[in-house]
Design a protein that fits this description.
Largest sheet: 8 strands, parallel, barrel
Order of helices and strands: EHEHEHEHHEHEHEHHHEHEH
Distance between the termini: 9 Å
Number of helices: 12
Strand content: 15-25%
Radius of gyration: 19 Å
Number of strands: 9
Helix content: 40-55%
Strand order of the largest sheet: 1-2-3-4-5-6-7-9
Shape: globular
Structural class: alpha/beta
Length: 330
């Protein structure tokens, strides 16, 4: 039985042979379509220096998505706080909340969302990937929203305009921070499936009730491709598999077409990587995916599920979300 809210995590993919603008248009269309299907949230993730991902400026993209929709919650999955001054994040998301009250989520992560050289360019410091100041930066960010005015500075917009704040993570660290702060926690199962259950256990064990949340609330983000048949889902998964291979090689590229992906001949080592990568993903027909999703829910006891579907064509992406709601979770 799948009786938890379903949401969307989108990377604003840039497809091979198409422009960045066309990729962003497709993400906007997906937001509208998934809103019509009844999805709860639509989040975009901050990544940098990746030719196949156009969501490098979440706050800008979210302003567009919120204006293009009317009911679905929109948010960051997430903003990588070490890349930004907390005051800037408070002002950006305070502005979004003021414009679209009750619809804005601020998911916060501590990874850079990029390589070390790009992280240095973002932070303008030799620390690069360091996140040692994350707890202090997070406290300052929350302080701007809640009126404690760190350093005597009032964020305008920001003060009194707090969006729904989430912590994101792929390990136990953010799980414990989220628990101690009493905020909802989103785990990146699509990145670190082996860590999912231990991290959620830590979050629930150490959770402290807060003014905003009385009990633990955990969301699991999972990669999923659902098609009318298992065979069709396999074809659609090819570009995603190739994208991750290119990423680990250090040669990220625009998202390949299914035909380009089918023409690629992986080595035995690369085939092993693809099999391992797929271990935590949902892939297949509605009947196949239903069993996979029910098993994931049974193991994680998630309060919400967030689905990332990385396929080439917008109609195939939207069809996957349609099948999930109408035939998998119905």
């Amino acid at each position: 039985m799948i009786d938890v809210p379903l949401s969307v995590l989108d990377l604003a993919p840039v497809q091979s042979g198409r422009t960045v603008g066309e990729g962003l248009d497709a993400t906007t269309e997906l937001a509208r379509r998934t809103e019509a299907l009844g999805y709860h949230r639509f989040w975009v993730a901050e990544h940098h220096n990746m030719p196949g991902i156009a969501s490098s400026a979440p706050s800008v993209l979210l302003a567009h998505l919120a204006a293009a929709t009317s009911t679905i919650r929109v948010g960051s999955g997430g903003v990588m706080l070490p890349n930004h001054a907390p005051l800037v994040v408070a002002e950006q998301f305070g502005t979004l909340h003021a414009l679209h009250p009750g619809r804005i989520d601020l998911g916060i992560g501590r990874a850079p969302g990029t390589d070390q050289a790009t992280a240095r360019a973002l932070r303008r410091t030799a620390d690069g990937l360091s996140a040692e100041s994350f707890p202090q930066e997070l406290a300052a960010l929350l302080g701007y929203f809640r009126g404690s005015d760190p350093g005597g500075i009032a964020a305008t917009p920001g003060r009194g305009e707090e969006p729904e704040v989430w912590l994101l993570g792929s390990s136990g660290y953010s799980a414990q921070v989220a628990a101690l702060l009493g905020v909802p926690f989103a785990f990146a199962h699509h990145i670190a499936p082996d860590n999912t259950e231990p991290a959620l256990a830590l979050y629930r064990e150490h959770f402290r009730p807060s003014e905003r949340l009385e009990r633990p609330h955990a969301m699991v983000a999972v990669a999923a491709i659902c098609a009318d048949t298992d065979e069709r889902a396999e074809i659609l998964a090819g570009p995603r598999d190739l994208a991750f291979l290119n990423l680990v090689r250090g040669t990220p590229q625009a998202l390949a077409t299914p035909e380009e992906a089918a023409a690629f001949r992986p080595s035995e080592q690369e085939r092993t990587f693809i099999r391992q990568r797929r271990a935590g993903q949902l892939l297949g027909s509605p009947e196949t995916v239903r069993g996979q999703l029910e098993d994931l829910l049974r193991r994680t006891q998630a309060d919400e599920l967030m689905i990332n579907t990385l396929v080439y064509d917008i109609d195939d992406r939207a069809r996957s979300f349609e099948l999930l709601t109408e035939k998998v979770a119905a």
